[in-house]
Amino acid sequence: MNISEKINFTDTAPEDRSQEDRSMAIRESLRNAIIDRRLAPGTKLSESEVGSLFDVSRTVARAALQMLAFEGLVKTERNRGAFVSNPSPEEARQIFASRRLIEPGIVAAAVERITPEDISRFRRQLDEEQRYLNERGPAARRAEIKASGDFHLMLASVAGNVILQRFMDELVARSSLVIALYGRSGVSSCGHSEHTAVLDALEKGDGERAARLMIHHIDHIEADLDLQLKQGSGLKDALSLA
Amino acid sequence: MNISEKINFTDTAPEDRSQEDRSMAIRESLRNAIIDRRLAPGTKLSESEVGSLFDVSRTVARAALQMLAFEGLVKTERNRGAFVSNPSPEEARQIFASRRLIEPGIVAAAVERITPEDISRFRRQLDEEQRYLNERGPAARRAEIKASGDFHLMLASVAGNVILQRFMDELVARSSLVIALYGRSGVSSCGHSEHTAVLDALEKGDGERAARLMIHHIDHIEADLDLQLKQGSGLKDALSLA
DNA sequence: ATTGGGCAAATCGTATGCAATCTTGGCATT
DNA sequence: AATGCCAAGATTGCATACGATTTGCCCAAT
């Protein structure tokens, strides 16, 4: 199997190349491919394959994979390689439990710092979200999940705490994976109106209400998942823990 | 300058070597050296030096440093190397803001799952903390800071959310660095009684009270710091952001 | 005395080679 | 037909080599 067609090479900004590391760019590319599910959970990411795809040596590919492993998007097994994470329902629950803890705090911090310019940026973001919502097809669905995650990341960025921002980066990425895995098909649209509701509350300076809405929003996302039991990938996963 | 005498090679469990990666063991060793400040902030950790210290090649030393960079304990500058982090007051504030957000949730989760065996483990841990508190000298101070952090990590482990546990791992490590940097000398002892108070509330099943106590505890730790302005590391830090 | 240029040493970034480990396919045995 | 075994192929773990970049030093010129 070849994963080359699954990866969009243009989604890394070109100036990243000069300032940052090359492995960083590869990480970004793979990250994007994973969170909007062009790379399915369980897909093997071999060092040489990744390396030749991006035209770098295994050393640099390996560094990118290590970073992804660190943020939980891939799992590495010794002497076997790296695989796109296949989060268990338990993992999914813990991800959302973490978000319920962190995001109200982010909202509370954001309401103190948000500017009118931020508000209009958010409005534009929500418009885009709406657009994908109205489109059909799996590509639009993926874009919708990604845009929905971006809303939460923008919020974290406005909150101005770089540590929480990084935590949210990881949580949102893993959430996207979980939603793609366990989400019931038709229902993911509920998120959009809730985003606007949160933003409205923020605009009015009502942090209390915004935080409450955010918790409900997260509850709804999780409620829309089917976390009952492992999807029938059979035996192998059934025997592994959780 | 040689950093070899600063590193305690025995603080990695021997069975780690077989099961885990070697770079993981090096990371642990360096982590411990950093958080109890045998390695001062700003210390350069060159790849070859670390490599020869642990008798591995630069490749594996580099992997360890990358992990430490990821969790914020070292900062790497391109083509210059890795340095033990020198957190700014702003960073310190963000670290404690994050803890104020996360730890009450951890306490709330822990109160649901804590067992009598856990309680006695905590008591033993607190006894050890007390012991270091009564000793004099910088070594005891370091051990005290570490033991104090371990209390919070044990709590996270009881809470049973591996994601939050990892976040706390990072936050506690960085807190230790911050305390060592900005802590006023005589006052760090206030933490101990607060730990026992939290534990008492947990034992009684009063999660509400335990969470409140935990927030106060974090407030006190932060209040004991001197975050007014940058210590005179001069120019270079002054010109860099934050 | 100070400033500027240039060379040398040190260190990082990356590629590649080799050994160890795992997987896979085929063959013999039951 | 099913199971166990073994060898070939593939892939990772790690070490080392080489080029690129930075730093520090020395010396000449002003």
From TrEMBL, chains A, B:
Domain spans labelled HTH gntR-type: 20-87
Signal peptide: none
Keywords for the protein's UniProt record, in alphabetical order: DNA-binding, Transcription, Transcription regulation
Annotated InterPro entries: GntR_C, TF_FadR/GntR_C, Tscrpt_reg_HTH_GntR, WH-like_DNA-bd_sf, WH_DNA-bd_sf
Region of interest (Disordered), ranges: 1-22
Keyword Glycoprotein among record annotations: no
SMART domains per record: FCD, HTH_GNTR
UniProt xrefs under PANTHER family: HTH-TYPE TRANSCRIPTIONAL REPRESSOR NANR, TRANSCRIPTIONAL REGULATOR, GNTR FAMILY
Protein's recorded name: Transcriptional regulator, GntR family
Organism classification: Bacteria, Pseudomonadati, Pseudomonadota, Alphaproteobacteria, Hyphomicrobiales
